Amino acid sequence: MATITSIPFTNRTSLLRSIALGGMFIFISQFIHQWIVITLIQKTPFILVWQYIASGALGNAAFEGGIATALLGVFFHLIISFVIAGVFILGAGRIPLLRRYAFVGALLYGFGVFVVMNMIVTPLSATPPLPAPTTPWLIEAIIEHVLAIGLPLGILVRRNANVKI
């Protein structure tokens, strides 16, 4: 059974660096996406986006917490971004097919993240239900997950494909 301590130090550093880069890219791209799409186009106050994320743990009380619960939502989203990146990058280290076909696997993973977050995680959390999205917004959300989550992870894995994990 392999553990991270059995991985040579240089590979561990590369692995952790890839997870950190992937997590930060996912977080920043989603931050920008939420600002443009939800705030500028859909005219929703930006603080509500982050409070909604915090409401996954706090329920409706998150909307009464002001900037504190918005910052908690930012923190939750950052952690989720690192977990999403870590799962794919560690999975690619264990599944040679993901390293060989990094882009295809990563794009499918981005779609999988959309499905898991919207069909499992959010419904099981304490977030209040949102109205069903229109077809164009649903397509936009899927494309955003595939391109802003999947594609950068595929690039990171492909770039480090020769690193044995």
Unreliable spans are none
How many individual helices? 6
Structural class: mainly alpha
What is the percent of helical residues?
over 70%
Helix-strand pattern: HHHHHH
Oligomer: single chain
Largest sheet: none
Radius of gyration: 17 Å
Number of strands: 0
Strand portion, in percent? under 5%
**Ends distance:** 13 Å
Structural notes for this entry:
The protein is mainly alpha-helical and about 160 residues long. The protein has one domain. The protein has 6 helices and no strands. The protein has helices spanning about 10-40, 45-60, 65-95, 95-100, 100-125, 135-160. The longest helix is centred in the first third of the chain and has 33 residues, at about 10-40. The protein starts with 8 loop residues before the first helix and ends in a 6-residue tail after the last helix. About 25% of the residues are buried.
Strand and helix layout:
Blueprint: H1 9-41, H2 46-58, H3 67-94, H4 96-100, H5 102-124, H6 135-159
Notable features of this structure?
165 residues; mainly alpha; 6 helices; 77% helix; 0% strand; globular
